[in-house]
């Protein structure tokens, strides 16, 4: 076995990349047993899941639309984790990007769309970046734990959003009617992101995929990206090599937040065309800021790995809804299924690393891919 | 019997802070052994849900607390197993568990929302409750509150004055040295992560059985993160952690009071106060800036101030240790 792999490193690499998907299939296998406990036919159930996610043009479009914010958030998470900072503030950064870009659209209703959309997306990008840069600055210059500060920044962002949507930014129509639903007016139809085919699929999905390639080039083909990764792998060695460590910590948090903010802006301009709240962050984000972290880990913290990972999770979310409607299984099953996938992927990663260590021990001097995929903590 | 509004408010601050104190003690034990259990927010929700349902069905709060301890210990075990055996990032596992606990508790508890259930009985300690001021605040409460304060003392004594406590701290501070001395580092980490998790379970259940009686979705959401922040603020010491928890409880009470006094100011401002404050607190205890401020005060005050404000985490916190 060892000989075979060392002669064919490409097969080894393909195996590494495919492993999460094999693990996902295994998780679905365990899910099938659980379905049988509920007296549901697993073949029919997974048929419904597949049909819900890929069964029609509309279904595929919905899957891609669900995957878009997940992919953008995951890109941000990749940059932060590669830079050695753990960004759990995706939810708040996404909200900031959404609110700021909505403000741009509401205050310039007569601007032509081809000017306003790029401007609004850019504003969303930098608003999220600014919100992410705050914990970055606190971490780099004041040694504040970024996990906690990003969580607190989420809570503050939710309060700020609730204030704006119930007060200054509320739809004038809602203000007059008694219902006072906390949402903004619909943005001018001229500002809608173009639809790709007559479904809900919008240009944002394409932008997200392009962004994934740009992030890959940034992290692996530019000096600044190299420095960010160096800081993430070993801050002390980076400092001795003359890299300004605090500055690159702030930069990686800023970019991380920026992609989350862009996700928010694209949700507004591509899908909802307005900003709304139910009092919590989840109401608008659908927990994309958190699920994006799982997607990034699933894609082994690689921007290109995040593309299939986000599609898979988008498909799971969309398909699971259909499964639940068709089979009438408790919704806890869906949660358990998602949990199973994560657990299986995590343990498969352990297994992969063990194999890699064994190979390393036997083939001295060969660089294994696995060491790159470790989560810097 | 003194029952002026201020005394009553302080007594309620103590009551509301007790789950935080218990959870802080648990997490301190865990982190002192070198593991970060990031799943607190989800664990507390699961424990609050389980504790209430079990207590409701069995009609005994104590069985409810036991069930909550088991859930807390189980979640903590996953974190320990994932990081020690599977060598995965503790932060990733803890975070995934946070999400899972939140969703799972919302689903499993959906048939038990907003119904009254058993409550921990009020029990004033005789004699002690008649001490002026302190009596009504601290000794006119219930068993969970007394347990929290006893726990602080026991945790402190265990950590800093006993042999097993030294072994525990060696696992978090100098695992290599401890291992050379014959301490089973990973055993220590398993043990104290699970004990810490069980305490967090008690904290979660004391919410649904003692403070906001009953279960509703997301009843303790956010508190787990507050606890993690208080652990840092408390410099991984139970006594400082206790003061941190009481301070947080007092801040919340103050925010409620200010809100009533200034109704024209938006509610969200007061909702945001505790979070902003926590960031400022983390900023204060962790930064070099504080060091520079300390240099300004008279020399005789510098040492005690430094001891009070400067803290350093257990040195091997969050890292894995290979026993060989």
Please explain how this structure is put together:
The complex is a heterodimer of chains A (377) and B (324). Chain A has helices at 2-7, 9-37, 42-54, 57-82, 90-107, 113-142, 146-166, 172-176, 203-221, 223-233, 235-240, 245-272, 282-285, 288-298, 303-327, 331-362. With 377 residues, chain A is mostly helical. Chain A has 2 domains: 1-40 and 331-377, no CATH class; 65-328, ABC transporter involved in vitamin B12 uptake, BtuC, CATH 1.10.3470. In chain A, helix 4 (57-82) crosses helix 14 (288-298) and helix 9 packs antiparallel against helix 15. The longest helix of chain A is centred in the C-terminal third of the chain and has 32 residues, at 331-362. Chain A is globular and about 70 Å long. Chain B is mostly helical and 324 residues long. Chain B has a single domain (5-309), classed as Orthogonal Bundle (ABC transporter involved in vitamin B12 uptake, BtuC), CATH 1.10.3470. Chain B has 14 helices and no strands. In chain B, helix 2 packs parallel to helix 4 and helix 2 (40-58) packs across helix 10 (223-233). Chain B is globular, with a radius of gyration of 20 Å. The mean pLDDT of chain B is 86. The interface between A and B is large, with 40 and 40 residues.
């Amino acid at each position: 076995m060892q000989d075979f792999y060392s002669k064919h490193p490409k097969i080894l690499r393909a195996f590494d990349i495919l492993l999460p998907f094999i693990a996902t299939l295994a998780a679905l296998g365990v899910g099938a047993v659980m379905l049988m406990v509920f007296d549901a036919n697993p073949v029919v159930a997974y048929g419904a899941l597949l049909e819900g996610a890929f069964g029609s043009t509309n279904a595929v479009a919905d899957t891609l639309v669900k995957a878009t914010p997940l992919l953008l958030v995951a890109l941000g998470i990749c940059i932060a984790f590669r830079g050695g900072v753990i960004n759990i503030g995706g939810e708040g950064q996404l909200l900031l990007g959404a609110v700021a870009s909505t403000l741009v659209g509401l205050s310039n209703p007569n601007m032509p769309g081809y000017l306003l959309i790029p401007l609004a997306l850019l504003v969303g990008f930098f608003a999220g970046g600014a919100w992410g840069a705050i914990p970055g600055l606190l971490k780099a210059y004041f040694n504040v734990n970024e996990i906690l500060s990003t969580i607190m920044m989420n809570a503050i962002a939710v309060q700020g959003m609730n204030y704006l949507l119930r007060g200054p930014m509320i739809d004038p129509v809602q203000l007059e009617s008694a219902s006072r639903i906390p949402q903004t007016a619909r943005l001018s139809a001229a500002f809608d992101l173009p639809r790709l085919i007559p479904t809900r699929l919008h240009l944002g999905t394409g932008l997200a995929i392009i962004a994934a390639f740009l992030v890959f080039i940034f992290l692996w083909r530019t000096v600044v990206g190299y420095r960010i990764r160096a800081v993430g792998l070993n801050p002390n060695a980076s400092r001795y090599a003359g890299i300004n460590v605090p500055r690159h910590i702030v930069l990686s948090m800023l970019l991380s937040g920026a992609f989350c903010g862009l996700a928010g802006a694209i949700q507004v301009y591509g899908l909802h065309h307005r900003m709304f709240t139910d009092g919590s962050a989840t109401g608008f984000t659908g927990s994309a800021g958190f699920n994006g972290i799982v997607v990034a880990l699933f894609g082994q913290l690689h921007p290109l790995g995040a593309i299939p990972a986000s599609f898979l999770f988008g498909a799971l979310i969309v398909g699971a809804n259909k499964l639940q409607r068709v089979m009438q299984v408790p919704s806890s099953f869906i949660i358990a299924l998602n949990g199973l996938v994560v657990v299986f992927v995590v343990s498969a990663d352990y297994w992969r690393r063990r194999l890699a260590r064994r190979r390393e021990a036997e083939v001295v001097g060969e660089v294994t891919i696995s060491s790159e995929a470790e989560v810097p903590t | 019997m003194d029952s002026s509004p201020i005394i009553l408010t302080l007594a309620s601050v103590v009551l509301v802070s007790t789950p935080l104190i218990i959870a802080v003690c648990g997490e301190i034990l865990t982190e002192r052994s070198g593991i970060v259990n990031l799943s607190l927010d989800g664990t507390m929700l699961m424990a609050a849900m389980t504790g209430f349902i079990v207590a409701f069905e069995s009609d005994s709060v104590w069985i409810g607390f036991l069930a909550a301890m088991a859930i807390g210990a189980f979640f903590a075990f996953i974190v320990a197993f994932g990081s020690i055996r599977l060598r995965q990032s503790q932060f990733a596992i803890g975070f995934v568990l946070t999400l899972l606990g939140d969703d799972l508790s919302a689903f499993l508890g959906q048939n038990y929302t907003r119904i009254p259930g058993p409550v921990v009985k009020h029990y004033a300690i005789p004699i002690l409750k008649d001490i002026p001021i302190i009596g009504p605040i601290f000794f006119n409460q219930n068993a969970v509150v007394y347990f929290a304060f006893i726990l602080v003392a026991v945790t402190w004594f265990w950590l800093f004055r006993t042999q097993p406590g030294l072994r525990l701290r060696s696992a978090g501070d100098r695992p290599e040295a401890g291992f050379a001395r014959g301490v089973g580092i990973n055993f220590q980490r398993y043990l104290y992560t699970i004990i810490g998790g069980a305490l967090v379970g008690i904290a979660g259940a004391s919410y649904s059985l003692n403070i906001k009686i009953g279960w509703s979705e997301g009843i303790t959401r956010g508190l787990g993160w507050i606890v993690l922040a208080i652990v840092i603020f408390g410099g991984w010491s139970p006594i400082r952690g206790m003061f941190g928890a009481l301070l947080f409880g007092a801040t919340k009470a103050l925010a409620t009071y200010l809100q009533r006094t200034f109704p024209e100011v938006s509610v969200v401002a007061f909702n945001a106060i505790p979070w902003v404050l926590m960031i400022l607190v983390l900023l204060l205890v962790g930064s070099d800036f504080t060091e520079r401020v300390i240099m300004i005060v008279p020399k005789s005050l510098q040492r005690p101030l430094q001891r009070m404000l400067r803290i350093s985490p257990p040195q091997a916190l969050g890292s894995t240790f290979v026993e060989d």
